[in-house]
């Protein structure tokens, strides 16, 4: 009767009990990939916002619609930029964890 529910989350975080050994190289690559996607999303949304701004000037009859679309695209660009920034820090943390797992910090190489 006690049916276990599985929730599907956007970022697929697992319970610590379910995890095996962490593949840090894979973690770094994953966050690097998501960072690039965020950057591309920010650039695309920013370009679309500029496009809509231009359309608002060229098409005064529908200027209000274009202004709204420009504002939505600008918000999307900021959100995607924030996501890229977040993933950049996740990547840095994964690199740090990888280094620590490989035997700590080796500052003195002679």
From TrEMBL:
- Basic residues composition-biased segments: 1-14
**Per the record, which residues fall in region Disordered?**
1-21, 82-110
InterPro entries tied to this protein: ABA_WDS
Output compositional bias ranges, type Basic and acidic residues.
85-104
Looking up Pfam families in the UniProt record yields: ABA_WDS
Query: Which protein family is it in?
Result: Belongs to the abscisic acid and water stress-induced protein family.
* PANTHER family associated with the record: ABSCISIC STRESS-RIPENING PROTEIN 2, ABSCISIC STRESS-RIPENING PROTEIN 5
Q: From the Swiss-Prot or TrEMBL record, give the protein name.
A: Abscisic stress-ripening protein 2
**Gene name tied to this protein:** ASR2
């Amino acid at each position: 009767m006690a049916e276990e529910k599985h929730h599907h989350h956007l970022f697929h975080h697992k319970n610590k009990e379910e995890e095996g050994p962490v593949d840090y190289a894979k973690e770094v690559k994953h966050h690097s990939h998501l960072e690039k996607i965020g950057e591309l999303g920010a650039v695309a949304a920013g370009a679309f916002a500029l496009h809509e701004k231009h359309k608002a000037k060229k098409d005064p009859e529908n200027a209000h619609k274009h202004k709204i679309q420009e504002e939505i695209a600008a918000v999307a660009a900021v959100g995607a930029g924030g996501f890229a920034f977040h993933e950049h820090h996740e990547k840095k943390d994964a690199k740090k964890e990888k280094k620590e797992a490989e035997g700590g910090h080796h500052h003195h190489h002679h």
